[in-house]
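step: validate -> pass
step: tokenize input -> pass
step: predict -> running
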Amino acid sequence: MNACLFYGPYDIRNEKISVPQINDNEILVKIKAALTCGTDLKTFQRGHPLLIKSIPSTFGHQFSGVVVKTGTNVKNFSVGQRVVALNSTPCYQCRFCIKEQFSLCENIEFLNGAYAEYIAVPENIVKHNTYEIPGNIPFEAAASLEGLAVVIHGIERSEISSDKTICIIGTGSIGLMFVALAKLNGAKVISIGRKDYKLNAAKNLGADYVLNMTEFGNPEDLQKKVNNLTNGFGPEIVIEAVGQPETWELATRLVTRGGLVNFFGGCKKGSKVELDTYRLHYDELKLIGVFHHTPKHVQTALNLLKNGSFHEKVFEKIITHIVPLRELEKAFLMHQSGDAIQVAVKP
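step: predict -> pass
step: emit ->
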């Protein structure tokens, strides 16, 4: 089969490899659509400690497709079904799973390899995190289930309500999903990004205000503008959906006294940020990190996807390009330059 393999930073190669073999408890899926996202871009740029265990390696983690083979013990799925499989499953047994903190599972099992023609879905993910998708959901939208689930997790932890203003830094696929879901929760939304076409997408998804940070000479000027939009106080919630130290620092500058900052975008391991401890303490800021998804958030995301109006409204604006598998590197370079929001890859 055709697959794109990761050999190192900025070194991915299209090769012929064997179709994965499955055991009696697994399923084989023919991939119909895989997506690029920030995690995959970071993997392309620098590798990934959790997802890349050996070199070369298949990679990619958001996909949907059709079951083409099932193990003899698999009862819940059959050949021909349209499915989406999540990229992981918790163990349900460790100290975090017992407390239902599934995103912190100590034995989490990951599934990587979406940038290929076929993928073998392991037993535990078949049991716990694979779902049939109805015919009205396009494969591209179905592949977004994982990304939507992590955003729902972030929304829940951010204490959003209709009487609050939320500022979302970042206009990639995750940042734009935050805009859409924050509006579903009735909040007033300020979207901050660097590309006008992405900010236009944010506006179309309901953002009340959009700000291009390149038009401001320094963070202080941007902060003044945000304050002017919030009666001089600043937003009650700021979500950082970029994953860069400078935007982590910006988030803590923008939030109002007593507000919450969600550091949702993951920075490179070992990154350092400078924070004003006086402000953190005396303004009683609440700083949280949110990672990954839980079974509850996946189910919520699936129900939302089944709402045709939602996936039509949101993903038609977020998925900006479709490319064949052989052009995956081109897709990442478009991502890197900001010329694409999310790319659907077709094997």
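step: describe -> The chain has a mean pLDDT of 96.
step: cleanup -> pass
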